[in-house]
Amino acid sequence: MVRVWVVRPDVRQYLLPIEESLSTVNAAIDEDWATVAAPLEFSEPVVSRVMDGVQRYIANTDDRPADEVERADAALAALAAQHLSAGTATEVYIYTTDIAAGEGAETVLASEGYGDSMTFVNGFRFIEDLVADNS
């Protein structure tokens, strides 16, 4: 099953089945509160190092080969590095339910000097907090 996180400006987050996700993502893009990131600049060494580092971190944590690790979460960290190194962002928040990916992003981005600029948000806790706040 493919899952897509959609984050709205009012910080509500939805986990939707793929059919609903595509229409929701397209609506978000059409309404200008979400954008599609440009392709990663792997020619920038920090982008490649972060992508590879997070994949290795996840692989080591999950005890599996790095080439079997889903690239999406590692790509989020690489995108964060790309924007931090270019100066187009001064802080980033990575929301994921993949704890190893979040911890890997924290660890690898910190090793690149961005530890104070990055925050990993545990997606499970975030959802629990949203549900609790709406109760």
Q: How would you characterize the overall build of this protein?
A:
The protein has helices spanning 18-30, 45-62, 71-86, 99-111, 123-133; strands at 4-7, 13-16, 92-96, 118-122. The protein is an alpha+beta fold and 135 residues long. The protein has a two-stranded antiparallel ribbon. A two-stranded parallel ribbon has the order 3-4. The radius of gyration is 15 Å and the shape is globular. The model is unreliable at 1-18 (pLDDT under 50).
In short:
The chain has 135 residues and is of the alpha+beta class. It is built from five helices and four strands; from the N terminus they run ββαααβαβα.
Secondary-structure-based class equals: alpha+beta
Q: Percent range for helical residues? A: 40-55%
Low-confidence stretches: 1-18
Subunit organisation of the chains:
single chain
> What is the typical, i.e. mean, pLDDT?
82
| Strand order in the sheet with the most strands | 1-2
% residues in beta strands? 5-15%
Biggest beta sheet attributes: 2 strands, antiparallel
Shape type: globular
- What is the string of helix and strand elements? EEHHHEHEH
InterPro entries: PIN-containing
Pfam families: PIN_halo
